[in-house]
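Running this now, will post back.
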Amino acid sequence: EFLSSLNSQLLDLLNASGGTAADLLGLRQQFSALWQRAIERADAERPLLLVVDGLDEMMPGEVTIADVLPTTVAPFVHVIVSSRPRPDPQSNLPPEHPMAKGETLRLEHFDRDGVAAMMRGRGIGEVDARRLALPAKRQHAG
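Update: finished.
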């Protein structure tokens, strides 16, 4: 379901026709191709940001969301993954995975003020931090 939704959003971003693959192998292959295309078009004017919220809330299974997170990033490409600190979301990843050695930012309070404070600490101005910290409507691809 995660890859189907993500692939649908990447298809929209890339103005690509067609639907999402029907099985896990097809979804993984499709994601790899779409992600590569999205990376190639990312630039200062159109940065690529993937936000995965609630990694710790995924259903256990043979293949997890962490298993299918992109391993390729480039300039103007960012992946943000949120999770509670326990269990440690980086502990089950292979050491070569970018998320395994990614920067960890801690939020004292996961609310608008906490997110805005974290952004200000990263050098984002007050006005932009408050604007970006507004709750976004969740989009689910259909």
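Residues 13 and 38 are 8 Å apart (CA to CA). More later if anyone needs it.
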